[in-house]
Design goal:
The chain is α/β, with parallel strands linked by helices. The protein is 48% helix and 12% strand. It is built from 12 helices and 8 strands. The chain has helices spanning 16-27, 39-58, 64-72, 80-84, 98-111, 131-134, 165-177, 194-210, 216-227, 233-240, 242-256, 259-273; strands at residues 8-12, 31-35, 74-76, 89-92, 117-120, 140-144, 154-158, 181-184. Helix 7 (165-177) links the parallel strand 7 (154-158) and strand 8. Helix 8 packs across helix 12. The protein is globular and about 60 Å long. The structure holds nicotinamide-adenine-dinucleotide. Nicotinamide-adenine-dinucleotide binds next to helix 1 and helix 5.
């Protein structure tokens, strides 16, 4: 398939990422079909998409007429067979559970045209863990977006050993058509490129604090003061959610056997036990909605 032949995109799983991806594809002229296993999610999807687009219009990022045209290009389907009809590209966005993703691919392989390309938006699973279930391994790769899609416009494209080079070329061209910077990986790696770097950065920050090298706020100050960023590692951890952070640290504690990871895990657990989940609970390393790192004096030398 050539990029000009790619017209219809099917997005499966309409959670945080699926709805953003559907909008991004529609925004750049693709016909988008959306499907979610949960019919209620499907039913509420149009309202949620409308709200997101309204925010773009409100922020002056999109003219209202374009917003209407964009929403008109999106169709919600409740039956898999109807969703799969005449699809050129399937983007899977269901939760990070290998079996769930594999079942989606196996089911839609039976329903989609044989030449349709399949991709996964998985965060840590590698494409070879899913390739067989797609029934079309040469037409399958990972295509990993970052949240929010229209701001953090970088997509990791990761082949598995059986992906055809033409599939990667097509996906790189598609990424550019939807205003995403394609990062084509040469080999498989859990966490792609940005997420791998981010993990090292955040794990180091947690290790510094749990080891008592410096206070949380000073670790953020060091990063923000040198790099001139509006947020430091502990502000980022609060945004991710400390329950999710705990799961990730726990995973690496088991995989790496590094004793520092166990120490870091206990450090995060103390906050969780106190009900501090980060931004979503209003309290994590910082208190929200006005965390200390956003206050004017945070980076002033004589504070
Ligand atoms: N949230 C992020 O910041 C982010 C960023 C990049 C990648 N990802 C990855 O994207 C994927 C989706 O993440 P999310 O945060 O959007 O998840 P989410 O939990 O917000 O949404 C998942 C959606 O999939 C639906 N679903 C579950 N099983 C299904 C099935 N069998 N068929 C159809 N729909 C099904 C659910 O009803 C739900 O609406 C995960 O693999 C995640 O790791 C997430």
């Amino acid at each position: 398939m050539r990029i000009d032949d790619l017209r219809r995109v099917l997005v499966i799983g309409l959670g945080t990422m699926g709805q953003e991806i559907a909008l991004q594809c529609a925004r750049f002229g693709f016909d988008v079909v959306c499907y979610d296993l949960d019919a209620e999610v499907g039913e509420s999807c149009r309202g949620r998409l409308g709200t997101l687009v309204g925010q773009w219009v409100g922020a002056g990022l999109l003219p209202a007429a374009d917003a209407r045209r964009m929403l008109d290009r999106i169709r919600i389907e409740f039956e898999p067979a109807a969703a799969a009809r005449q699809v050129d590209l399937l983007i899977e966005c269901v939760p990070e559970i290998r079996r769930a993703k594999a079942e989606v691919f196996a089911r839609f392989h039976e329903l989609c045209p044989p030449e349709a390309v399949f991709v996964t938006n998985a965060s840590y699973l590698t494409p070879s863990m899913l390739a067989k279930s797609t029934g079309r391994p040469e037409l399958f790769a990972a295509f990993h977006f970052h949240d929010p899609v229209w701001v953090a416009n970088v997509v990791d494209i990761m082949p598995h050993p059986g992906t055809a080079p033409a599939t990667i070329e097509l996906l790189a061209a598609f990424a550019e058509r939807i205003d995403q910077i394609p990062i084509v990986c040469h080999k498989e790696n859990h966490g792609y490129v940005f997420n791998s770097m981010l993990r090292s950065f955040l794990m180091t920050a947690i290790a510094l604090a749990s080891d008592g090298v410096a206070d949380v706020e000073d670790i953020d100050r060091a990063w923000m003061g040198v790099m001139k960023t509006p947020i430091g590692p502990f502000g980022i951890l609060d945004r991710i959610g400390l329950d999710t952070v705990y799961d990730i640290v726990q995973y690496w504690t088991l995989v790496s056997k590094d004793p520092q990871h166990a120490k870091s895990r206990e450090f995060i657990k103390r906050l969780l036990d106190a009900g501090q989940l980060g931004l979503k609970s209003g309290h994590g390393f910082y208190r929200y909605p006005h965390p200390a790192f956003e206050q004017p004096g945070f980076l002033q030398p004589g504070r």
